[in-house]
Design a protein that fits this description.
Elements: E1 3-8, H1 12-19, E2 23-28, E3 45-49, H2 65-76, E4 84-88, H3 94-106, H4 112-122, H5 130-139, H6 145-151, E5 165-168
Parallel strand pairs: 1-4, 2-3, 2-4
Antiparallel strand pairs: 1-5
C-alpha cells in the first residue's frame, strides 16, 4: 500500500532498511543537515534546511515559501509505488507538518480536518509546525482550512521523540 512514513532522525536508517523507500525528505536545521543515506538515490533525497520555528521573525532559518514549494514539487514526482519517508530531528513537528501538507495535496478530495484527525490518531505525539502549515495553506489555496484543522487538534502528547508512523495514502486512513 502506498504510504508516507514519518520518523525521527534516530529511526531513519531502520526505516530505510525495513521499508525500502523510493524518496526521503530531510527537514533539519542547516547546521545539522545529513548526507544522503545509504540505499537512497541522491536525486530522490530532498534536503530542506530549516529550523523548527513557528514565527518567521524569530530565529535563524525559519520555514519559508521555497521550502514548501520544493516539498510539494518533490513529492509530486513520487509515484507512490514505494514509501516516501519524511523525517526531522524528533519526528514531532517539521516532519508531521510535511506529512500533513503532502496528504492534503495528494488527497485534495478529503477534508483537511479529516486528514488532521487521522494524523492525530496515528501520531498522538504530533505537533505540526504551524508556520509550515500556514505557508502550505496559502500555496495550496486552502483559505485557512489547513491551519484551522491543525489548530483544532487536541494538544499532542508530550514526547522527546516520536516513533515511526505509517500514513497510508488510501482513505479511510484512520
Amino acid at each position: 500500500m502506498p504510504k508516507i512514513i514519518i520518523t525521527p532522525l534516530s529511526g531513519l536508517a531502520d526505516v530505510i532498511r525495513d521499508h525500502s523507500p523510493s524518496h526521503v525528505v530531510t527537514l533539519l536545521s542547516p547546521e545539522h543537515m545529513i548526507a544522503t543515506p545509504d540505499g537512497v538515490a541522491v536525486e530522490r533525497h530532498l534536503k530542506l534546511g530549516m529550523n523548527d520555528i513557528t514565527d518567521s521573525t524569530l530565529g535563524d532559518a525559519p520555514p519559508h515559501d521555497d521550502h514548501i514549494k520544493d516539498l510539494l514539487d518533490f513529492a509530486r514526482d513520487w509515484d507512490a509505488t514505494a514509501p516516501l519517508v519524511v523525517h526531522c530531528w524528533a519526528g514531532i513537528s517539521r516532519s508531521t507538518a510535511a506529512a500533513f501538507i503532502l496528504m492534503c495535496d495528494r488527497l485534495d478530495h478529503v477534508r483537511e480536518s479529516e486528514i488532521a484527525a487521522a494524523l492525530r490518531k496515528r501520531a498522538p505525539h504530533a505537533h505540526p509546525n504551524r508556520l509550515m502549515v500556514q505557508l502550505a495553506d496559502t500555496m495550496l489555496d486552502r483559505n485557512g482550512r489547513m491551519v484551522d484543522a491543525i489548530e483544532a487538534l487536541a494538544p499532542g502528547e508530550p514526547a522527546e521523540e516520536g516513533p515511526p508512523v505509517h500514513f497510508p495514502l488510501a482513505f479511510g486512513i484512520t
